[in-house]
Design brief:
The strands form 3 sheets. The chain has a 7-stranded mixed β-sheet with strand order 2-8-7-6-5-3-4, sandwiched between helices. Strands 9-10-13-12 form a 4-stranded antiparallel β-sheet. Strands 1-11 form a two-stranded parallel ribbon. 37% of the residues lie in helices and 15% in strands. It is α/β, with parallel strands linked by helices. Strand 5 (172-178), helix 7 and strand 6 form a beta-alpha-beta unit.
Length: 412
C-alpha cells in the first residue's frame, strides 16, 4: 500500500450515526483539556454524576472473583440467567427457562446479536422516531433497513399502532419498542402496547423490546412489560444493570425470548451460535445479577418525591415552564428530557444551538436530530445531575436563547 493511499472504509457505515459520542463530545473533550469545566448532559452515565452501584453488587463480584477467571457458558452463568427467569416469572411472564436467556456485554451487544441472527439483506425493522440511535445503526449494519414510525410530540411521544401497521410490508421482520423511552421519557400505556402486541401476532412479526429503564418511572406511571402481553409471536425482552443499578461499566445486559418459543427455536440456535463466536460476556459482572434482581431495589428511593432523580426531573420541568421559548412533554420514565424550542426563536437549528451552548456556555447536550427525527427543534438532556446544576444549565440556556432573539440566526 502506498503511504498516500487511505484505508477504504466499509460501505455499511454510510447510514450509521451515533452523535451522542460524536463531534460535539470530541469538542467538549478538547475544551475540557484546555481547562474549561464542561457540564456534560449528552449521555446517561450515572457514575459521572456521583451515583454508585449498590454495595451488595460490588461485594457479590468480589466474592466470586476466583470463579471469574475462565470462560463461562456462551449464554452466561446459570445463577444470573436463573435470576432473570425469576424476575420474569414474578412479572407474569410464563414458559421461560434459563435456556431462553442470554447474558451479553450490555444490551448494546445483544441488540447486535439479535438482529444479526434475524436479518437478511433488505429485511425491514420498524424503529421508533425518535429512537435510541443504536437501534437504527444496528439494523443498517446487519444488512437490514430501518423504517421509522413516528412518536409525535403532540401525542406525548406515544406511537399510534395504526401508523405502525401502515408501514408494514412483506419485508418487515420486527417491531422495536423502547419503553420507558430514550430519549423522550415516555412510558407507553397498556392499551397501546396491547394493540402493538396483537398487531405483531397478526402479521407474524418479532417484538424487540428495549426495557433497560424498566424500573425508572415517576409520579405513578405504570410500566407494563411487553412480554406479559404476548402469546402468539416471539418477544425478545432486553434489560440490564446499567441504568436501574447504576452499573454501566459492568457491561451486563440480558435478552429473554418469550411468547411462541417453539417458533423461535432456530432463532435461539442462531443467537447461541453468535454468542459462542464471542466466547462469552464479561464474567465478573454477571455475579452481580442475582444480587441485583433479588435484593433491595434502591432505584425506587431515587425516583420517588424527594429522591435525587425525581427532584432533578422536577428542576427540568420547572425550568422549562419558566422559559417561554422551551417546550416539554414531562418525562414519565427513564433518565432524560427531550426539550423542544418554540417558534419565537426564528430559524432555530438544534445542531447549531448545541454547538453554541458548548462553546459559549460550556454545556454539552445531544441535538434532537441525533435520534433520527425529521425535525431540528429539540435536544436531549439527562436528569442525572443534581437539581442545582440543572437550574444553572437552564439559566445558561436562557442567556443563549435571549441572544438568539436579539440576533436571529440562519439555520445550518
Amino acid at each position: 500500500m502506498s503511504p498516500s493511499t487511505s484505508v477504504r472504509t466499509s460501505e455499511s457505515l454510510a447510514n450509521v450515526r451515533y452523535e451522542i459520542r460524536g463531534k460535539l463530545a470530541r469538542r467538549a473533550l478538547e475544551l475540557s483539556r484546555k481547562g474549561y469545566e464542561i457540564i456534560s448532559l449528552n449521555i446517561g452515565n450515572p457514575a459521572l454524576f456521583g451515583f454508585r452501584t449498590p454495595e451488595t453488587m460490588r461485594l457479590a463480584m468480589i466474592e466470586n472473583f476466583p470463579d471469574s477467571e475462565g470462560y463461562c457458558h456462551q449464554k452466561g452463568i446459570f445463577p444470573a440467567r436463573e435470576a432473570v427467569v425469576m424476575q420474569q416469572q414474578g412479572r407474569g411472564v410464563h414458559g421461560v427457562t434459563a435456556e431462553e436467556v442470554f447474558i451479553g456485554n450490555g444490551v448494546s451487544e445483544l441488540i447486535d446479536i439479535t438482529l444479526r441472527a434475524m436479518l437478511n439483506e433488505g429485511d425491514e425493522v420498524l424503529v421508533p422516531s425518535p429512537d435510541y440511535p443504536l437501534w437504527t445503526a444496528a439494523v443498517n449494519l446487519n444488512r437490514g433497513r430501518a423504517v421509522h414510525y413516528p412518536c409525535r410530540p403532540e401525542s406525548d411521544f406515544v406511537p399510534d399502532p395504526a401508523e405502525i401497521e401502515s408501514l408494514i410490508t412483506p419485508r418487515t421482520r420486527a417491531i422495536v419498542i423502547v419503553n420507558p423511552n430514550n430519549p423522550t421519557g415516555a412510558v407507553y400505556p397498556r392499551e397501546v402496547l396491547t394493540a402493538i402486541a396483537r398487531l405483531a401476532e397478526q402479521r407474524g412479526l418479532v417484538l424487540l423490546c428495549d426495557e433497560i429503564y424498566d424500573q425508572i418511572t415517576y409520579d405513578g406511571a405504570e410500566f407494563v412489560p411487553m412480554a406479559t402481553l404476548v402469546r402468539d409471536t416471539v418477544c425478545v425482552t432486553m434489560s440490564g444493570l446499567s441504568k436501574v443499578y447504576r452499573a454501566c461499566g459492568y457491561r451486563v445486559g440480558w435478552a429473554v425470548i418469550s411468547g411462541n418459543i417453539n417458533a423461535a427455536k432456530d432463532f435461539i440456535g442462531a443467537m447461541e451460535l453468535l454468542s459462542s463466536l464471542r466466547l462469552c460476556s464479561n464474567v465478573p459482572g454477571q455475579w452481580a445479577v442475582q444480587t441485583a434482581l433479588g435484593g433491595h431495589q434502591s432505584i425506587r428511593e431515587l425516583t420517588a418525591p424527594g429522591g435525587r432523580l425525581y427532584e432533578s426531573r422536577r428542576a427540568i420541568i420547572e425550568s422549562v415552564k419558566d422559559n417561554p421559548s422551551l417546550r416539554l412533554r414531562a418525562p414519565a420514565g427513564a433518565l432524560y428530557a427531550f426539550v423542544g424550542v418554540g417558534d419565537d426563536i426564528p430559524e432555530f437549528d438544534d445542531q447549531s444551538f448545541a454547538l453554541d451552548l458548548l462553546e459559549k456556555k460550556h454545556v454539552l447536550v445531544a441535538p434532537g436530530v441525533s435520534f433520527n427525527v425529521p425535525y431540528n427543534t429539540h435536544f436531549r438532556i439527562t436528569n442525572l445531575p443534581d437539581a442545582a446544576t440543572l437550574r444553572t444549565v437552564f439559566a445558561r440556556m436562557s442567556e443563549l436563547l435571549d441572544e438568539y432573539r436579539k440576533s436571529p440566526r440562519v439555520s445550518a
